[in-house]
Write a structure and sequence with these properties.
The protein is α+β, with helices and mostly antiparallel strands. Helices cover 19% and strands 40% of the residues. The N terminus is likely disordered.
């Protein structure tokens, strides 16, 4: 049973405490921001859809995309594939920001929940590392639609696993 103080009681005995703090986000690469920007610029898909990096911090990345009718589905909402694309890239780069220099990343799994139709003038995918590992990093992204004075609405969430591919010259 979970007690009010965050500890766990089982059969009348105190067995542990829950720790809700997040791990510190310490980049292993001092030039992570420049490397993220350089890698992002090499992605033709981001250029094709008009997405831009809007925030790069250790373990956190935001990608911003203005609405375009040619990226919409038949009801004029941003297409789910585009929503997924910016969330996936934000997740990958959030993970990449915590990896050693010379690493590369690939998505190995993700789950997307589309919460409401993707409407807005601008869309922001904000990804944050949940758990950074040596090989796999777990990341969550939230995608928001922003419409003028109406503020932002959460339109989708993603949780993914990103694999770290070490540079072949790196023997560590």
């Amino acid at each position: 049973m979970l007690r009010r103080d965050g500890s766990i009681e089982s059969a009348g005995r105190l067995v542990g405490a829950l720790n809700f703090s997040t791990q510190p986000m310490n980049p292993l690469n001092p030039s992570f921001a420049e490397d993220v920007e350089r890698s992002f610029a090499r992605q033709p898909i981001m250029n094709l859809i008009g997405a831009q990096l809007s925030l790069v911090e250790p373990g956190v990345v935001e990608i911003t995309l203005p609405y375009r009718a040619d990226l919409a589905q038949q009801h004029e909402y941003l297409h789910a594939g585009i929503v997924t694309t910016i969330a996936d890239s934000a997740c990958g780069y959030a993970a990449y920001s915590l990896m050693r220099a010379g690493s590369e990343v690939l998505s190995v799994e993700f789950k997307v929940k589309l919460l409401r139709p993707a409407q807005g003038e601008t869309f922001v995918a904000r990804a944050k590392v949940i758990k950074a590992g040596r090989t796999l990093t777990v990341v969550r992204a939230d995608v928001f639609g922003i419409a003028g004075n109406a503020g932002r609405e959460l339109i989708a969430t993603m949780q993914g696993a990103i694999i770290c591919l070490r540079n072949r010259d790196d023997n560590n």
